[in-house]
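Worked example 2:
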Amino acid sequence: MPKCNTLKIPQLKAKIRKNYPLHKKTWLGVGGCAQYYIEPEDEMDLKLVFQHAGDYPIEIIGSGSNLLIRDGGIEGIVLHLGKSFQHYTLQGDTITCQAGMPLMKLASIAAQNDLSGFEFMSGIPGSLGGGLKMNAGAYESDLSKIVKQVKVMDLVGNIHEINPKEEAFFDYRKSRLPEGWIFVEATLKGEPKPKELILKKMEQLRQKRLASQPQKVRTAGSTFKNLPTVSAWQLIDAVGLRGYEYNGAKMSEKHSNFMVNIDACAADLEELGEFVRSTVAAKTGQYLEWEVKRIGKRKK
């Protein structure tokens, strides 16, 4: 625990919330409290947090769509880029957008401006910052294919601009962002195409999701990363765990790589995931890696 009793950040415009419940910030609907929770108003607010955090560790969360926060909560500062970080500008075939922008909203903006290449993100419920962190993708496309430049902030509030292609910045479901740094903005390039064709493709993808993924349930999307030669759901099916339920946590019957929270706490969900991983390893020799990010303390 940080030695300082009270967090004070001079000139900060955003409100500092103490013992803030985080379960309402995740799609799984679980998790303890943040010692301090801040939604910065702008880049200067963000810089001030980094400069005045002192001994307090900083954890950054996006829209919570791919996140499991443990029941014991998070010590230190939790940063969330909200509505104040959703500004964007259009220039030709590029969109420069702040990291708090929801990916689905960004896909819609691109479509309304006759820009293709963003359709895959129309069903991804995360923010741009979180999407960049994990190189979010679907249907054989991902952010690395359209991102031309990213702007990030380091641990002391300095801004860096990165060309992802030059620095081999993205890989499958991950980026090479240094630990603790945060995405602030990205420039993405599309391909001009008639709006009606873009909307048609988005509808086709929507129908695929409806047919293959659980809807209107508490889930964090794909629980485990696919392996180079086999999909995670195939391994889960192979060991008979499709639909398996434990203490109100369940591997979906519709898509066995989707974990569903029926009436579970974070510990139950994580235990189910670890049981699936150990069973797959024991029976197939293949090792599943979590795609859902797990943070925070376990409850004592």
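The radius of gyration is 20 Å. The mean pLDDT is 94.
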